[in-house]
Write a structure and sequence with these properties.
This protein has 11 helices and 12 strands. It is an alpha+beta fold and 341 residues long. The strands form 3 sheets. A 6-stranded mixed beta sheet has the order 8-10-7-11-9-12. Strands 3-6-4-5 form a 4-stranded mixed beta sheet, with helices on one face. The longest helix has 18 residues. The chain is globular, with a radius of gyration of 21 Å.
Length: 341
């Protein structure tokens, strides 16, 4: 008996590393030291920082992976994985520097997992960070055939004087919502239940969606890194940022506020994408539950001084990001005021 008979093919693992090597190298920045395959990755601190603060984040893709497995499409969830991490790190004002992934499966399928890594590499390119390394674990009997799980880890850096931690936010600041690309990577347990209980198929194409359910729902999470970092360098006065993930606006927007602050939301101030209207109708989901589960069309929020709000919106619009004035910071005990439902 040997390891292969037990379900782990070491040679296939080595071949897989060789297969993805060029994808990984295509994401590298000048600060990357060494190559792929060591026990750890090396990254030099970028020049120009006087008091650099390292910022870290980790996340996964959640049950959206079930949809990828069912549709046998694996080229988008890697982008989701990167997005969930780099957008979180970005909220502190940090530039994502490097990313690592953990990929676990029951049996290594090189074709399938190469698609996943290609998506991870694409996400890193969009965020401007290096795919520094990772781990591929073959674990027989732990996952269903053809299934895998993903986790991602990101490290960024910000000058201490530019770090955003809630203390910069002022009453009267305007909340500008940046459009999401769709459902992103949260709420898919509810999405899957709506589809299953309603007798729908991932290949169904409701007229209002402009594509099949599978295609629309697998749209990868938008990465906001380059536009936000460019905005700050251009002098856009961003005082706070929130990545709208699980828990929607009610849970995530208050996380970037200071003490004694809330946000008064302006209902109807942005366009809710058709996919959310379809989910609400198909599942009989209340407005309140929709807002507490999904991003509802707002993937990221920046808080800016009122006098700079119009200029900031024009700046993002010029970068082809739909944006909306969705509310204002007011005195309060935290949370949101005036949210629909």
């Amino acid at each position: 008996m040997d390891y292969r008979e037990a379900g782990v093919d070491v040679e296939a693992g080595r071949a897989f590393v060789g297969r993805i090597r060029n994808m990984v190298h295509s994401t590298h920045r000048r600060e990357v030291l060494g190559g792929l395959g060591g026990f750890s990755g090396f990254f030099a601190m970028p020049a120009g920082y006087r008091e650099p603060v390292l910022v870290s984040g980790t996340d996964g893709v959640g049950t959206k992976l079930k949809l990828a497995h069912q549709l046998n499409r694996h080229d988008t969830v890697g982008v989701d994985l990167v997005a969930m991490c780099v957008n979180d790190v970005l909220t502190s004002g940090a530039e994502p520097l490097f990313f690592l992934d953990y990929l676990a499966t029951g049996k290594l399928n090189q074709e399938q997992l190469a698609e996943v890594v290609a998506g991870i590499a694409e996400g890193c390119k969009q965020a401007g960070c290096a795919l520094l390394g990772g781990e591929t674990a073959e674990m027989p009997g732990f996952y269903q055939p053809g299934e895998y799980d993903l986790a991602g880890f990101c490290v960024g850096v910000v000058e201490r004087s530019q770090l955003l931690d809630g203390t910069q936010v002022r009453v009267g600041d305007v909340a500008i919502g940046l459009a999401s690309s769709g459902v992103h990577s949260n709420g898919f347990s509810l999405v899957r239940k709506i589809v299953a209980d309603g007798g729908f198929d991932w290949g169904d194409s409701p007229e209002r969606l402009g594509g099949s359910l599978g295609e629309v729902l697998l749209t990868p999470t938008r990465i906001y890194v380059k536009e936000i970092l460019e905005a700050r360098r251009a002098g856009v006065g961003i005082r706070g940022m929130a990545h709208i993930t699980g828990g929607g606006l009610p849970e995530n927007l208050p996380r970037c506020l200071g003490e004694g602050q809330s946000v008064r939301i302006e209902p109807g101030s942005w366009r809710v994408p058709p996919v959310f209207e379809w989910l609400a109708d198909a599942g009989g989901v209340s407005v309140g539950e929709m807002f507490n589960t999904f991003n509802m069309g707002i993937g990221f929020v920046v808080l800016v001084p009122a006098v700079e709000a119009e200029a900031a919106m024009e700046w993002f619009a010029s970068r082809a990001i739909a944006c909306y004035r969705i509310g204002e910071v007011v005195e309060g005990a935290g949370g949101l005021i005036g949210l629909p439902g």
